[in-house]
Design goal:
The protein is 5% helix and 44% strand. It has one helix and ten strands. Strand 2 and strand 3 (26-28) form a beta hairpin.
């Protein structure tokens, strides 16, 4: 896949993650979907990262990509998500936990 094709993975949809700060201002987390390049038939790994994380215990994402040129190979969670349950399909990525996850870094790889 070309870099342009993989970039289309960056169209993720989800509910905004945020919280009130000490000044009672709503603060949103910033999610970033990285890029990757690969040859036709190869597998690429695309990181999904969070910054300015006020904390979360649930998320749900719907990856959007051109299914004519790419195949969803799955999700690999990082240790940030170890204390929860991850369920995935090619059209939905869900994670739940009884603990609030704080901190910034890579959440998972597509």
């Amino acid at each position: 896949q070309s870099a342009e094709t993989v970039k289309k993975l960056s169209n993720l949809y989800g509910t905004a993650c945020g919280a009130l700060d000490v000044n009672h201002t709503f603060v949103y987390a910033e999610l970033t979907v990285g890029t990757a390049t690969g040859s036709p038939g190869s597998t690429v790994s695309v990181p999904v990262s969070i910054e300015k994380n006020p904390g979360f215990a649930v998320f749900s994402f719907t990856p959007s990509y051109d299914q004519n040129v790419m195949t969803f190979a799955g999700v690999t969670a990082t240790p940030m998500l170890d204390d929860g349950t991850l369920t995935t399909t090619s059209s939905q990525i869900n994670w739940t936990s009884e603990k609030n996850v704080t901190g910034d870094g890579v959440l998972f790889y597509l």
